[in-house]
Amino acid sequence: MIPYTPPRAAKDIPVIDLTGTFVSDDAREDAARLIHRACRETGFFYVSGHGIDPLLVESQLAAARRFFAQSDEAKQAVSKAHSPHWRGYEGVGAQVLDAGSAADHKESFAIAIDLAEDDPLVVAGVPGQGPNLWPEHLPGFREQLLAYQGAMIDLGRHLMGLIAMSVDLDYGYFAAGLDQPQCGVRLLRYPPQPQDSADNVLGAGAHSDWGSITILLQDGKAGLEVRNAAGDWILATPIPGTFVINIGQMVERFTAGIYRANLHRVRNGSPDAARYSIASFFELEPLYRMGRAPSCPPDRAYEALADLTVSEHIDQMARASYADAGADQQ
Ligand SMILES: O=C(O)CCC(=O)C(=O)O
Ligand SMILES: [Fe+2]
């Protein structure tokens, strides 16, 4: 358990403008340098100038509000219990992101790449691969989520290119793992924070993300807290028009620890309103093995991990985070 202590105001999470990076190599070099620094310092940065339609973004938050406003019965109809692939709805208390702490005070709905049961990856039993669960009574919901997921995949591919450049590799370094990338999109709703937090109840307990990069959309409400290099917790205040990007354990492994998949947590700062966010977990192909970047020196701590595929690693982490919540909660 990581006991809760109040955060400081954000001052160390930079905003990186991507506008020029879609057209100019020089702008890519500049952005890669800023990404390098951010990934060493906190593992977090905002991106602006990302080119994603603000209407698509607004509609995505609206879709999240519509989903969670449904009856409990409608939400349970797409319960994660019906999916062996980590898709669907889970209620408050279903997940423990900080082992030893109280369960997370959040509810969520997740999709990933929608694969038919006869897709070769599903037939081969590759962890996490399969069909999505879709709510029956929300017209347009599926189309919206798939459009948003498509935009996240485009942005994720671009960011992986910049991350490769940030450690002196080519923009195209990850091409072999980016043909059919994975992208989980998770709608999150954090009810108002329980005032009695004696047993460390948080919206999401302190954790680092498991995959490559997370692209986070926040509604206007503060809540995301990030631990900086000095060990202080700082608030990642929502900035309109941006996404918060953080690197996960796959990129930490890629750099053999030069970049850190940093601890973060959520505590809804509004006493009487829910906070909504959308976390998109961008990931290389399921069977990709994330080796060490040739430009980063080896570190023995990471050598033992090298044999797991992306999907095996994420599946292990997911299992652990739900096992901690007990089998009786969904
Ligand atoms: O909701 C947020 O602000 C962050 C969510 C998060 O860290 C996660 O889902 O991994
Ligand atoms: Fe996270």
UniProtKB/TrEMBL annotation:
It comes from Novosphingobium indicum. This is Oxidoreductase. The lineage of its organism: Bacteria, Pseudomonadati, Pseudomonadota, Alphaproteobacteria, Sphingomonadales. Keywords: Iron, Metal-binding, Oxidoreductase. Belongs to the iron/ascorbate-dependent oxidoreductase family. It comes from the Bacteria. InterPro entries: DIOX_N, IPNS-like_FE2OG_OXY, IPNS-like_sf, Oxoglu/Fe-dep_dioxygenase_dom. Residues 177-284 form the Fe2OG dioxygenase domain. Pfam families: 2OG-FeII_Oxy, DIOX_N.
